[in-house]
Amino acid sequence: MPAVPGAPAPGPRGRLQDKPVPGHKRVLLAAPRGYCAGVDRAVIAVEKALERFGAPVYVRKQIVHNIHVVTELEARGAIFVDEVDEVPEGAHVVFSAHGVSPAVVSAASDRGLVAIDATCPLVTKVHREAVRFARDDHEILLIGHAGHEEVEGTAGEAPGHVTIVNSPAEADTVEVRDPANVVWLSQTTLSVDETMETVRRLRERFPQLKDPPSDDICYATQNRQVAIKKVAPAADLVIVVGSANSSNSVRLVEVALEHGARAAHRVDYAREIQQEWLDGVATVGVTSGASVPDVLVHEVLAELADAGYRDVEEVRTAEEDLMFSLPKELRQDPSGRRDERALGGRARA
Length: 349
What we know:
Strand order of the largest sheet: 10-9-11-1-12
Mean pLDDT: 93
Helix content: 25-40%
């Protein structure tokens, strides 16, 4: 496996031992896994901005929630900041895939920044729903994690109309002004099952609760959860590749445990796999979150092969071929011709 520029070096090969276990050692590799269309679009947007405008290009927050991707882009000249007031006036700034509130857009404009909006179109859809429901004076119950960038961006579209519901338990205690005028929306990267349980509890308390016009949870989040649900019952161990601040990666660990995996762990890199995790394990399930490049999964498979898990069977539950157009500022090359990478999209599992 070739090294990835800017990435920390992988751990030494042969670190894991091939110990005997009851049964035949194998890997069940979930598919779909890894990059979704929105992540792909956002990462390409930063790459193309660097090509087009030169380094540095500033990015508000992590472009996607993956430490490897961020480290690689930093090596190419991207500078990640928490807020736009850290960006020099007149510089280029990319908004992350998770979206931003109108207040952030306004602050960037006030500083004369050249903003490139890499918000996932599926997140933008939720933003537009929040604006429409607020315009009609609905109270919005936003199911999601307080403090997550996506939730902050969506709530910022409808100030004064949004109450965040963090969990099914909070659905039992949340208060609303008018139970007859309430609608729910959700963060796109949540557990499908937990979200539906939250909605069920909300509807028990507020029978007139309105649904969004379409499902807010992203197709990729759903597909990855469906795939690991199929793998989990047969897995003694599930390894999820993804970062700790990636909601959809963390959810995959939870979903695996809820659906029959004996154990499940999240790792950023293959070198984090512990020998003791493999004790007595015949079948290892492997998947990755929607912001994870497949190179990291291949490194996990290589480490597992050293430990005797060389029989790899892909468990595919869906095909994905969705691609999104890049932000308008990046669809043409400097001569004005349509760029050949005007669509985000590269090989994805």
